[in-house]
């Protein structure tokens, strides 16, 4: 649907400063192309301004998201960006959110945060006025700028410090009701992905700073994505941070428990080579400190990496030790093992190692390892936990088949929060028997600006952006080949006007530029259709329509062009509804 009253947008007056060269600091396609096509400009790291055509795209994406929220009965509100610190103190997040929270102080020395998310605000908003079970469930959403002082803002709109998010929050009297709305939100997110033309996958996720137990992320598949995904043909898919997997370490059977001299062999790769065994038959040790300050040694299969997200679950507040800290704790870097650790060290091992009878591990002595070290006999493991990051080839936790890997851009995430915020912020309702309970809550975030970049990341070629019709800056660019030509000009302008009147979004390239420049710009900006009007064609009674997506060109009789394009655009729009 067109956003505004139909009108033709003249290119000559449009503020669309395209760039001839790729901007140097733009590493990925979407960042590069949005800048080059003149849709976006950087103001400061992670902070961007949207120029007219970029703004149109942004508003369209916002509208798709809004429609899908309305369709599931979520009600639109608008909450402020500036949030009083007291609310964050009540939830306990003023302390724990860390340096990502942008904080400021007003003239009366009162502290505020620029909202990175709105759980506190929405909970405070409803806690005194949403009081009865009769008013539940309730779902509210808003589309508002968010602020996060990301440690590495990068990739343009993908990881900004200021970004537009749709965030919805729901309030319930029961887990069933929460589950039902959570499922509806997830279905709405799938529809949003489809309407934006995204190829996507929903994955199991960690709930991170937001909290809660159940969470899923919506990933737009793209090599440039920062998220690793593991998935299986059976339907299982998870963010690599949390993916459970059947990890199968190998056992290296040794005739006896024996100390082996391993001079200078301080890495797993070197150890495996030295002993001529697979890395999967060695055990890797990581030295850390848990939240209580205890030195903690974590053991995982040698061919895997530690997942900090998983390890956090069993060892809250975990931090890896520096070399100096290791030394101070009496640990020998590169040679740490479970036999003969210093007194008081906490030991946690990956659950996959529980079934491995003999370990090849460090001997807590420079240049020495043990082979044939047996659990329960030569050492004990008091805690087993899921610690290692799953990798492609590990067994699917559901069906056992080897997992496959993909990369994704997290465009949205849905969470079941339970009573995390309502309990800490005293947000309660009365049930039928006048008993007071904290609300069950859910929250549902969608990255509007990030998904704009994700669309470009998936829809581009060497010449530029290839917008899906649902979110394009305009549907058709009408390009007269000669400026001011008596024959060409009125026909081109007339076609543009007729298309606009029929509800098609039209840009009219009335600039005094060579045809080549106009074609290049139209390709770069990525209008789905280009209607080329030239003198020679008109002599034969035809104009040319180019489909940006497949490059196909077709001649249309001037008299039939408008009807044909209207029908083509309508059919294309319908694909995204
Ligand atoms: P990430 O893991 O990528 O840092 P997040 O999990 O912290 O993101 P959420 O709190 O789940 O983000 O926020 C909801 C949505 O907001 C995300 O799914 C994403 O689309 C968007 N988003 C989050 N951080 C940013 C950012 N720095 N720039 C742009 N969009 C963002
Ligand atoms: Mg997230």
Short key terms for the protein model shown above:
binds magnesium ion, nine-stranded mixed sheet, 34 strands, single chain, BirA Bifunctional Protein, domain 2, alpha+beta, 27% helix, YbaK protein, Rossmann fold, 3 domains, globular, 577 residues, binds adenosine-5'-triphosphate
Could you explain how this protein is built, in words?
This protein has 577 residues and is an alpha+beta fold. The protein has 3 domains: 243 residues, BirA Bifunctional Protein, domain 2 (2-Layer Sandwich), CATH 3.30.930.10; 132 residues, YbaK protein (Alpha-Beta Complex), CATH 3.90.960; 102 residues, Anticodon-binding domain (Rossmann fold), CATH 3.40.50.800. Helices cover 27% and strands 29% of the residues. It has 15 helices and 34 strands. The strands form 9 sheets. Strands 4, 8, 9, 10, 11, 12, 13, 24 and 27 form a 9-stranded mixed sheet that branches. A 6-stranded mixed sheet has the order 1-31-30-32-33-34, with helices on both faces. A 5-stranded mixed sheet has the order 18-15-16-19-22, with no helix packed on it. Strand 28 and strand 29 form a beta hairpin. Helix 1 packs across helix 11, helix 2 runs antiparallel to helix 6 and helix 2 crosses helix 11. Bound molecules: adenosine-5'-triphosphate and magnesium ion. Magnesium ion binds next to strand 24.
């Amino acid at each position: 649907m067109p956003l505004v009253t139909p009108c033709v947008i003249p290119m000559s007056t449009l503020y669309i400063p395209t760039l001839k060269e790729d901007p140097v600091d733009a590493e990925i396609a979407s960042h590069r192309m949005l800048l080059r096509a003149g849709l976006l400009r950087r103001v400061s790291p992670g902070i961007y301004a949207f120029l007219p055509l970029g703004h149109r795209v942004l508003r369209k994406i916002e509208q798709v998201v809004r429609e899908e929220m309305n369709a599931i009965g979520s009600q639109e509100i608008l909450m402020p960006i500036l949030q009083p610190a007291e609310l964050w103190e009540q939830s306990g997040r003023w302390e724990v959110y860390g340096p990502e929270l942008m904080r400021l102080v007003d003239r009366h020395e009162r502290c505020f945060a620029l909202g990175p998310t709105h759980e506190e605000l929405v909970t405070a908003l409803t806690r005194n006025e949403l009081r009865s079970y009769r008013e539940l469930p309730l779902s509210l959403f808003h589309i508002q700028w968010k602020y996060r002082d990301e440690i590495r803002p990068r990739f343009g709109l993908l990881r900004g410090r200021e970004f537009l998010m749709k965030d919805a929050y729901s309030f319930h009297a029961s887990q069933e009701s929460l589950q039902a709305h959570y499922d509806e939100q997830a279905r709405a997110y799938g529809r949003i992905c489809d309407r934006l033309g995204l190829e996507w996958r929903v994955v199991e996720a960690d709930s991170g700073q937001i909290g809660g137990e159940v969470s899923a992320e919506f990933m737009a598949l793209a090599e440039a994505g920062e998220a690793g995904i593991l998935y299986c043909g059976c339907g299982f898919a998870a963010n690599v941070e949390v993916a459970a997997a059947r990890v199968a370490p190998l056992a290296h059977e040794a005739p006896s428990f024996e100390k082996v001299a391993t001079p200078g062999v301080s890495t797993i790769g070197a150890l495996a080579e030295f002993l001529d065994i697979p890395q999967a038959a060695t055990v890797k040790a990581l030295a850390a400190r848990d939240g209580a300050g205890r030195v903690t040694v974590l053991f995982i299969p040698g061919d895997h990496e530690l997942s900090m997200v998983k390890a956090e679950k069993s060892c809250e507040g975990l931090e890896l030790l520096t070399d100096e800290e290791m030394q101070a704790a009496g640990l020998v870097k590169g040679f740490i093992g479970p036999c003969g650790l210093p007194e008081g060290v906490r030991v946690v091992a990956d659950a996959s190692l529980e079934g491995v009878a003999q370990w090849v591990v460090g001997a807590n002595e420079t240049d020495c390892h043990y082979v044939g070290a047996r659990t329960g006999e030569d050492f004990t493991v008091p805690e087993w936990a899921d610690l290692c990051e799953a990798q492609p080839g590990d067994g699917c936790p559901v069906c056992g088949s080897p997992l496959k890997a993909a990369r994704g851009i997290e465009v949205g995430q849905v969470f079941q929060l339970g009573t995390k915020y309502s309990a800490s912020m005293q947000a309660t309702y009365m049930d039928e028997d006048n008993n007071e309970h904290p609300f069950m809550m859910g929250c549902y975030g969608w990255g509007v600006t990030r998904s704009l970049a994700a669309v470009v990341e998936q829809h581009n070629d060497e010449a530029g952006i290839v917008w899906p019709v649902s979110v394009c800056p305009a549907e058709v660019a009408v390009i007269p080949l000669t400026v001011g030509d008596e024959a060409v000009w009125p026909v081109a302008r007339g076609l543009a006007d007729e298309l606009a009147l029929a509800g098609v979004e039209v840009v009219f390239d009335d600039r005094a530029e060579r045809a080549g420049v106009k074609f290049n710009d139209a390709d770069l900006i990525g209008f789905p259709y280009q209607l080329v009007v030239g003198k020679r064609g008109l002599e034969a009674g035809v104009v040319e329509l180019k489909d940006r997506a497949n490059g196909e060109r077709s001649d249309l009789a001037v008299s039939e062009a408008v009807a044909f394009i209207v029908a083509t655009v309508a059919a294309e729009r319908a694909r995204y509804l």
